[in-house]
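User: Hey, quick favor. My workstation is busy. Could you predict this chain's structure for me?
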Amino acid sequence: MSQAVSPIDLSAPATSPDALKRRYAAMRAENPRLRVRDAARALGVSEADLVAVRIGDGVRRLGTRWKALIEGMPAVGDVMILTRNEACVHEKVGTFGDIRVSETGGVTLARDVDLRLFFTKWAHAFVVEEELASGLRKSLQVFAKDGEAIHKIYLREESDEAAFEALVGEHLADDQEPGLLALEPRAPKAAERPDSEIDRDALLTRWGAIKDVHQFFGMLKDLGAGRTQAFRLAEGEYTVKVPVHAFRAALEKARDRALPIMIFVGNQGLIQIHTGPVENLKEMGPWMNVLDERFNLHLREDLIADAWIVRKPTDDGTVTSLEIFGEDGEVIAMMFGERKPGQPELEGWREIVSELEKLEAH
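Assistant: No problem, here it is.
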């Protein structure tokens, strides 16, 4: 979770690797709990740059053979995986398995390491060693072309460190020189077309003909509609707008009823999924947290701009999601009742959704 960053006035500009490294060290000395994402923002650089300037000092650069790297992860055993976006952090403990990837991406389908991988968005990777009060922490960290963190894999006591080092040894890059990265700014999101230009009748007809939830994205692309734009146009037919605190309410209801749910959190390069119950919920400032033994979620509720209940017809019956979005229209997180293809939606989840539709705004 983000920590407050107090300004540090150092005369050296943060435009050279050494100066950036010194300024970051000074910030960490003042605030040992400072998160690297927040430090990077305060210094006006990317998170990947803050890692890259430390190459040779607890950081090793890896190559970009993503398929082979992921395929080698099962040997490492239990790890903690972390995926985040601006408003939400998703952490799971588990072992990689059931890996189905190509050179451009794929999936891992182990229950506790359930990922959707988009390798075309991956650009930089490092092994990072950090000295913490609890001891040395090792992680594998992947970044996008713009320096945004895509995915982090942390070793635990139970991890096979020798297997991890053997895998790292196979993937070390030839270039181990510290320095700022040649980053590519992320292309701006295309402006949404006016609602009046979207064929609402065609949208509703196509929506009603969906057989599988994975057809939804293709439908939007064909019709030139944005995700929340489609939700607006289908409101009253397939969607219901709900208050932004609906996600918290759904977590609380699922906890109280011991109902297994699915929570999806992603960014441009990866989607990470939790399947199972949630038990220990705790509010800390603007953050709503799930603090379970093998699953943590940290959600900035103040960054939620919109929340929607969305129903999609499938061959297995209606599938219902609760989806939350930021001010920029990007998905923050999605929640479903636990299910697998071929199985109907849990009745307990439908009951929760029905109650969410009756929520009033705070």
